[in-house]
């Protein structure tokens, strides 16, 4: 449900928020209010080889007035300079969150560890929000 939008952060904290309206995306409210679904969120991130980075993720489920109902936060260990360039995934599955969910607020934070000018911080891509129906 989140469009592909690769992002590169820089020396100071960078923030990107995407608000997904589940009803506008085609999930009917009755299904959201049932106890039969899970909301699965995931994000891929990594660092450039020549500059370490710090990455944070916060995902909040919101009601129709955008009030927070439940949240998930991740603060993985920073990637140090010259250590590796591999991508990492952060994921979470929301279950049993109750009635009234309408939005998913997907918030990414990142920065490089050297305060360099330019985009040397966390590389973020392939963010996703998926609705999964649990078998009864």
TrEMBL record:
Pfam families: FBA (PF04300)
Domain FBA: 1-133
Underlying gene: LOC113199277
Annotated GO MF terms: ubiquitin protein ligase activity
GO cellular component term, pick one: cytoplasm
Organism, as annotated: Urocitellus parryii (Arctic ground squirrel)
PROSITE patterns: FBA (PS51114)
GO biological process: ERAD pathway; glycoprotein catabolic process; SCF-dependent proteasomal ubiquitin-dependent protein catabolic process
UniProt protein name: FBA domain-containing protein
